[in-house]
Amino acid sequence: MKKYYAVFIVLCFAPALYAQIDPSLLRRTPKDTGSLQMNMDAIYSRPFLQLGKLPVALGGYVEANYQYLKEDGISEGHQFQMRRLTLFVSSSISKRIKFLSEIEFEDGTKEINIEFASIDFELAPLLNFRGGVVMNPIGAFNQNHDGPKWEFIDRPISATQMLPATWSNVGFGVFGKKYVKDWVYAYEAYFTNGFDDKIIDNEDGKTFLPASKENPDRFEESFNGSPLFTGKVAVKNRKIGEVGLSYMGGIYNKYQEDGLVLDKKRRVNVFAIDFNTTLPKTNTWINGEWAWVNVDVPDTYTEQFGKKQQGGFVDVVQPVIKKPMMGFENAVLNLAVRLEYVDWNKGVFKSTGGNISDDVFAIVPAISWRPTAQTVIRLNYRRNKQQDILGNPPATMAGFQFGFSTYF
């Protein structure tokens, strides 16, 4: 309960403190000043507010929306949701030592998570040390997930229901970047606590990596004493775009207890590729990610627990109007669409040779209006078609979502 009391005190007294501050003392701290921003820079590429010469800067973002969805003609009616409130606290401890934390409140206060809380020691451009609660850099969305950056209300299915979105763990690692004219090369490598056997022993009744997020003990101890390795290399060209290749893998089961061997070591391995670019003539932004998951599932489990999974998404965002609108000088109206696909069980039945389905395809057209770069108001139409493991006619979910997200 202590964490709830601390949060309550901060939320109650922060407005009163802010009201007593001379606005002239408040200033926005600069973002990462690198000439080419990459997905790995997302944690620092955020607006922060700083009071005078205090070493601590504050920021955050909020998301809220309305939705009306139907699945095969059945609806839960009109729903208003407070998806998340996220707070950032950062500090430049010295010129080359930085601290940043990210605390997220989801669905009101149904979930409170520390998504990031690490110290960065800048030793050289190509060698920097990071320790604490780090964001595992698998794919691009896991790091670059802030709501105000996206034209879509829901996070990608592949990032939230196949990969565990905003997946973070306690650990240590190194990262670095090198600039060469119009190119920038980057890498990250971390050892952290990892997954547990919930990925195959969960209420969903299938191989489901996000189930490990339910274990709060992963910030205190490793489930099996074996580290999870996550590594990524990326390259970006000013004119072409950015490409990232990432890998995350480790042992997920408890293979021994007090020296007694319980099972063989079973691994989970994840590979991902991500890409983003902006077409120069039309200013069209294209962003995509695809991932492959391989899990060593025991032979005693039924075939509904997939050993191989794959999926991803691609977003296309087209600005159509850029001009002053309704008192906002730099407003932008966008048209966008997202295509999504996930196969939670890639393979065939041993008994029949028939395809194992358990997949989903979704299309999400969107209209978004950005009165400023840090705020988005968005209207989405979502249409999903999901098949069960036997490949029966797919269940169809469709409906509208409307909401906003903004940094503050």
Automatic annotation (TrEMBL):
Supply the InterPro entries for this chain: Porin_dom_sf (IPR023614)
Cleavable signal peptide: 1-19
Q: Which domain of life is it from?
A: Bacteria
Sorted alphabetically, the keyword list is: Signal
* Designated name of the protein: Porin
Q: Which organism encodes this protein?
A: Niastella caeni
